[in-house]
Design a protein that fits this description.
- The structure is a single chain.
- By secondary structure, the protein is mainly alpha-helical.
- A two-stranded antiparallel sheet has the order 1-2. Strands 3-4 form a two-stranded antiparallel ribbon.
- β1 and β2 form a beta hairpin.
- α1 packs antiparallel against α4, α3 runs parallel beside α5 and α4 runs antiparallel to α5.
- The longest helix has 26 residues.
- 31% of the residues are buried.
Length: 188
């Protein structure tokens, strides 16, 4: 369990931050950009959750917990991506769960007839913002992976998460009935 007695440590005043193994890197390093984008995505999912209830809320809370695990995974250098007693790693079961939830949500959705515009209900609009930010987190993680190997399952989770958020937004829009359709060239 994490125990924080003090929020500020002053150790980052020099522009560096600590990783799980105790090493320090620049706050603007690619790895830190990915961790920050994951944190931002998680915050936006929390904003969406304010508008959710029932199973959707349960799923969003589980994803938020996964995102903290994923952030810890990204903050753990090394090439051994197996979870351990003191090492959090994203695992295949987390990715599989997202896929199963996507498949279950997809069953009742109206088929897509066009690209859809972000919006609709408050929940859907917030899920779309989280989706777009999840895509940025994935791009940042891929950039960081080019500098130092990251857990491939963490990258896969981020890719699947944006899919999950897209489908969840459609569910939040009355299973797609309230989606806002893109009409190419409509304002010409």
């Amino acid at each position: 369990m994490v125990k924080l007695n003090k929020i500020y440590t002053r150790t980052g005043d020099d522009g560096t931050t600590g990783l799980v193994d105790g090493s320090r890197i620049a706050k603007d390093a690619a790895r830190m950009a990915a961790i920050g984008d994951v944190d931002e995505t998680n915050s936006l999912i929390g904003g969406a959750a304010v508008h959710a209830d029932g199973v959707m809320l349960e799923h969003l809370r589980m994803i938020q917990n996964d995102m903290f695990d994923l952030g810890a995974d990204l903050a753990t250098p090394g090439s051994n991506f197996e979870p351990g007693a003191k090492t959090l790693r994203t695992v295949a079961r987390q990715v599989d769960r997202l896929e199963q939830e996507i498949d279950a949500m997809n069953v009742a959705l109206l088929p897509l007839r066009s690209f859809i515009l972000p919006g609709g209900s408050s929940l859907a609009a917030n899920l779309h913002v989280a989706r777009a930010t999840a895509r940025r987190a994935e791009r940042s993680a891929i950039t960081a992976n080019a500098h130092a190997a990251l857990n491939p399952l963490a990258l896969r989770y981020l890719n699947r998460l944006s899919d999950w958020l897209f489908v969840a937004a459609r569910v939040a829009n009355a299973d797609g009935r309230d989606d806002i359709m893109w009409v190419p060239g409509a304002s010409r």
